[in-house]
Amino acid sequence: MINITYKEFLQELSKQTPYDFCEYSDNSIQRRIHRIIQESGLNLSQLIEKATSDAVFLERLVNDITVNTTELFRNQEMWENLFTKVLPKLKSKKNINVWHAGCSTGQEVYSNLILLNELDMLDKANVVASDINNRVVKTAKEGEYPFRFNAQYLETYNQLMSKIKPQAKPFEYYFDIDNENDKMKAKDFLSSNPKFVKHDLVAEEIPFYQKFDIIFCRNVLIYFNPELQVKIVRKFFDKLYDDGVLIIGSHEALHGFVKTHFVKNGMVYTKNNTFHLTYK
Question: For residue range 20-54, what is the model confidence (pLDDT) as tens digits?
């Protein structure tokens, strides 16, 4: 393989490894691969050769290809909607099942757990979270982040809670803060709740047998081409309970056929039970 194109690189990677990025958005994935080429000093053919002969390098390559940007309580409007409108409807349920698909380093998961606790619903929440990137899954499990880099989380938390629950517990109730060592770590009662797993949303079967009341997939679909977006949303539809909700990113939207199968309210899409999707 000499002078192969980006498309040929992705096709070969999908043939030689378990990972398939062929239906990712062209512009975003090409930028990331170009950066990998610059940093590694390898061309596309050499990347394929090394990835197929070195399992550790393959995982590092996948980690570098995938995007992992997340924040605690990112897009406050969505969290306000979740706290005031979505979660209260689930309060009478014996168990609440939640899936964070593409959870990255886990700040979104901990945001949700905090709101569940503030509503006295944490004890009946079964939360699972997944990501293709094994490095960020490890970070999410640990629930530990640099403090100074994320110090704005305190202000974000206080701003949100002043709107939705002024008597909420302080931020330090949920995170241990170590200024000297520049660390903030989720308290054990939070980090012990979710089950974090490595999972390829595109190429692998969904590893969870249960259906869900809420599926988060925020700022993930934007990196897929339209056809792949439809495939993934069909899977989500099938895994949601009747009246279950799908929550996506602020710059994302459902389009075409699948759009008619959900009722939209901001970033929250409620499953429309008058439809039934089938897919291969």
Answer: 787 777 777 788 888 888 888 888 888 888 888 88
Nearest to 143 by CA among 184, 172, 179: 184
**Residue 3: band (very low, low, confident or very high) from pLDDT cuts 50, 70, 90:** low
pLDDT in tens, 192-210: 999 999 999 988 899 999 9
Q: pTM of the entire structure?
A: 0.85
Residues 6, 38: Cα–Cα separation, whole Å: 14
Instruction: Calculate the alpha carbon distances from 33 to 48, 57, 64, 68, 161 in Å.
Output: 12, 14, 8, 15, 40
Q: Give the Cα separation of 74 and 260 in Å (integer).
A: 27
Q: How many CB atoms lie within 10 A of CB 19?
A: 21
